[in-house]
Amino acid sequence: MQRVRYYEYGGPEVLTVEDADPPAPQAGQVLLRAEAIGVNFVDTKFRRGSDSGSIFQRPLPGRPTGDVVGTVTQVGPDVDRRLVGRRVAALAEDAYADYVVAEASWLATVPDHLDSGDASMLAMSAPVALRILRAARLNPGDTVLIHAAAGGIGHLAVQLAKVLGAGTVIGTARSSRKLDFVRNVGADVAIDYALPDWPDQVRAAAPGGVDVVLDAVGGSVLQSSLDLLAPFGRTVVYGAATGELERVPVVKLFALRSVTGFNLTAWRHANPDQARQEMGELADLFAAGQLRTTVHASLPLTEAATAHELIEARSHTGRILLIPTTPPAA
Ligand SMILES: NC(=O)c1ccc[n+]([C@@H]2O[C@H](COP(=O)([O-])OP(=O)(O)OC[C@H]3O[C@@H](n4cnc5c(N)ncnc54)[C@H](OP(=O)(O)O)[C@@H]3O)[C@@H](O)[C@H]2O)c1
């Protein structure tokens, strides 16, 4: 089979396509024949190593993670054999490959007829988008500010905010093309947060302040966002694309504001039953057409470096997929 790893930190060119034997599933694991692999921003940070900042460190050799959609071909010794043949989605390591090992306990079942773009969101991106809105205790009618709203998670969060009954949804992104996209996926207002007056534009759209902020950008975007919260407003911090880990000034919270953090791994540990139930809920929303994934590009697995280039250029809207091209072993 083919797979992509990296053996030194650096630019997209360090991603190396190689031949390897398919891995063997161990206890608690399944082997998937991948049909598509969703590429996530965080892996471009891991690949750059120490240049990315302290929260993005992973050892060499680099085995990129990814949102794999595929069919179970083998199961580990203690895993239910009835899974063989089932089409599933999973967040996995060493995921840029024709065959990928995944944890059996966190497989998302893919509804019939769901395309690989939507399916690629079921295990990680969509659960994060839904859970950050719930972590924010979104109430019907709330005004919601979603940063990086043109991204993989962002464009789902815009749609889910509306599904959950949000009032005004404000999405931020850079470039007019991305702002059009953010409006097209359902935001009422789209604002270019590369402009220095972006907070004033949010104030104009939400004169009473915003009830919810979803932020995985960090830095000055997070700091300015805290000032935009209405009384009882909630910010959910779920990443730091800038690599800037901000201190939250307690004095800003005195104005009846709160900040909470979110991480999918922590959430799965804290409440596995609900985490699994939400994967099913999201599958139903995709199957019903209430939630849609925009696939920005589908590239052959061997062009993983191009996928990373697109993400680092910040040119993508929605999802980027890698597609294995090697025929399955007989
Ligand atoms: N907490 C969790 O469990 C969890 C799980 C998965 C992902 N995440 C985080 O969620 C965020 C979204 O993930 P994703 O895979 O869907 O990525 P994405 O949104 O598709 O891509 C990241 C986007 O962040 C924006 N951005 C802002 N400042 C940036 C900077 N300094 N450098 C690069 N990009 C910057 C860019 O959009 P603009 O060009 O429009 O600014 C970029 O397109 C990431 O920060 C990721 O680390 C968290």
Automatic annotation (TrEMBL):
Transmembrane segments: none annotated. Residues 10-322 form the Enoyl reductase (ER) domain. Keywords: NADP, Oxidoreductase. This is Putative quinone oxidoreductase, NADPH-dependent. GO terms for molecular function: mRNA 3'-UTR AU-rich region binding; NADPH binding; quinone reductase (NADPH) activity; zinc ion binding. It comes from the Bacteria. One of its GO terms (cellular component) is cytosol. It comes from Micromonospora lupini str. Lupac 08.
